[in-house]
Structures
1.
Amino acid sequence: STGTGKTAAFLLPVLHQLAGKESAGLRVLVLTPTRELALQIDEQAMALGYHVRLSSVAIVGGMKMNPQEAAIRAGVEIIVATPGRLKDHMKQRQPYLDMSTVQFLILDEADRMFDMGFLPDVHFIESRLPKERQTLLFSATMPPKVRTLADSILRDPETVAVDPTKPAEGLEHCAFTVASNRKEALLGEILSYDRMVSVIVFVKRKSEADRLARTARRLSRREAASIHSGRSQQERIDALEDFRTGRCPVLIATDVAARGIDVSKVTHVVHFDVPRSSEDYIHRSGRTGRAGEDGEVITFVSPAEESEFASIEQAIGSSIRRATLRGFDTGLGGGGERSGGERGREGGGEGGGGRGRRRRR
């Protein structure tokens, strides 16, 4: 399940095997699809590696190559990289990245690397590593394309599988049936409640993220930031840090933030649009309720998205509770709860989980 320590599960055994041995250059290579995940893994590698005198560096795009090159030349033992930027370093005219000493190759979020088109880069990198090494591949799903990759780079692998089709326990799920042109107003309404302390709102397209952040600030009178691939790396780092520290309680995000990003105490995840697949629903939802904590997941479902949402319910084997809020119900949801206004007068609820009070404006 998300938030249970997968990064430590592969870092700790690797560090244990390397601890106390004489430094022999680069020994661990971790490939991951997003800059945010690479920076997060690198942070943990540095924190854990410090105790056994092993160093780490993140090699990601959107940042200057010179400091990365300097770290490589200094003899770092662990590199955590996105495939594209690592390939850039490998193809420099004056070679300085020696990967002949790599003992461990770790591919994290392999299915996401496929979705983002990194397969050619992964094969390019893997082909230049020593044949004698240990390779670990982690993937939320195992479609044929990922199985083909595994078969091509793993030798007699041991397979460990857990059920990836269900969201983590401890999450409360609900869905609002709402017209597409009323979703922004509904978001502004629910963000105005006190219990929405730390909220990630997922959208499908980066073009929506900045606009929705401005709308959320205007309607809810709360600070909101956006994070997506169109922003500079420093802007993405700043937005995530503001969200992590609570300076900005609302983060509007694309799937850049759906995989692996670990921010504690996220109280709510909102799917502004119905996710494209049950896997996306599970990964996005997993940003709340980390490591056994409670969390709430809210999905906005327009009438045109009903069939997609039904497919997600079928895939996860659960019917998600419908909630309504006065002024936003299309009347097409069926089986929904009473409106938030009625519930609020009776028990202090506001349509979602019925917990907390609306903020005074």
2.
Amino acid sequence: GTPNINIQRDPLNGRLFESFSEDPQVVRILAPELVKGVQSKGVLANVKHFVANNQETNRLGINEIISERALEEIYYPGFRACVEEGGVQTLMSAYNAINGIPCTESQHLLRTKLREEWGFEGCVISDWGAVYNPVAALLGGTDLAMPGPLEAHEIEKGIAEGTITEEELDRN
């Protein structure tokens, strides 16, 4: 139930067998069909790793500099199709950073693109250990930090200081 729809970009990526293709259009066509098939059996598909998690070497610390055009044309289509056509209910964010912001903390990725533009209403789950800053991840749009539970003191402090509102906490 966890289709890896990252674009195959690095032949050294040991997880290529899990993904579909190096072609964004092939991914865009095949991935939502897998999501529909999995979810038709009462199991939630978990599309991963949002977004541009295309290598194993340094994947936890890499900051990928990617233009919005490249994101739109290469990296987003499969994810977008899984949301809009496949109706995916859960999505796993990636370890890497895009343009200086970790994917688990990116309001642009998780709120603007995923929720506002594509209409995703499901749960955003972090990759295992990908939440580097619990407050930034919560504010960025990560709903569930895995493997969890994380220490709550940073979130409690954010609530006490007013950097996290009750509405934001409830949303996650």
3.
Amino acid sequence: SMSSMKDGPVKPVPHLPWIPYEYNIMKELFKLKILSPGISREKYNIFVNDILIYWPCISLPKDYTFEYLLEREPLILLGFIAVTCLNQPDLHDTLLYYLEGNLAQRVSISGDITVNLIQIYLVLSLWGSPPRKWGSYKHQMSLLTALDLSLCLDLGNEKFRDSSNVLKSNSEERKIIRAYI
């Protein structure tokens, strides 16, 4: 379970309703009353204004407003919100349950690795739940991998992020990124 990374007893992941990965995951979480639009907007603003500023190697496009992400990139929005819930273990574990299940489905079954998908993994690596030992090898490697990947993709440079050549179907860039991940 997600709780196994934290101190204290390991709690099993509760039986939560399944959300098909084709659905807008944020809207489904609203329907299930796991999140509300107001709290989600507040947590998104905390991420953008109080958390993201400490990692200038990652920039967000100007059109990444709450409304835009809710309609077009709900997984990215969920990733941003999930990392603001580290101090709320039950909510954090629930959000990660849905987020990681959806990511695994997309990466393992569809194999469609996009810059947006990589951006979610970067956010989770940089602001993930800390392991029991702060100096652990796994934690350091996750952080280094996230930073290296953001530099390799030049995610801090807006003009390269939206380039149509970044992840063409059979491009060398896509093969390199898949091999790297």
4.
Amino acid sequence: WAIISELKQSFEVVELPLESAEIAADIDLLLVVHPKELSDDSLYAIDQFVLRGGRLLAFVDPLCMVDLQNQQQQQYMPPVPSTLGPLFDAWGIGFNTSQVVVDRKLATRIRAEQGTDVLPTVVTLTKQEISSEDPATASLNNMLVFTAGSFTGDGAEGLTKSVLLQSSDDAQMMESFMTQRNGADILKGFIPDGVKKNLAIKLTGNFKSAFPEGKNAAESEEESADQSKHLSISSIPGAVVLVADADMIYDA
């Protein structure tokens, strides 16, 4: 992905295996892109990274168009959604992996098989939907998101939540399988709920572990030694940015 090449020009970039049981102490920021079916070991490694003050930027996706385009055409199987489920729960954040944001006001005209189509699942954000208060987004004028999800919840005790990207209020959540149609058909059953959807959020403060008892509740002596390093709450304040779409950083 082009974004990785760009990052390598300014930062030292290390690729971690999907099944990483721990994250090295010299890693300052962890970029997690479309994490599908992560093991408890990997989730625990991310959990402990955040609790020791690490910075996390995660792109999760209920319906990844890159996956959809890359899978075999003969048989339609919905792509596996991505999430950090247990970590979201511990952080007081909800994320429904089976629903996509449909936004009538911010629908985007795209090239389709027969001419063009206006898709309410491909959302063009303007300065009105992009936070001007956060340095990471303040200079952005527009952005495209594709079949994005939405984050709910205000964050657990000890955390401060801020919204970086949101939909308009002419939007609703729709089951993913209902969005694989043309724009007009998607909008036939459209009923906006008048609530702006959180497409990207930032959490800062003191995080609590999603694994309060440690990695394993029943442990051997060797595992018990590892447990002595377990953090159940942040040792120093951490920061997490969550984005409900992975397609937006793919160079299609």
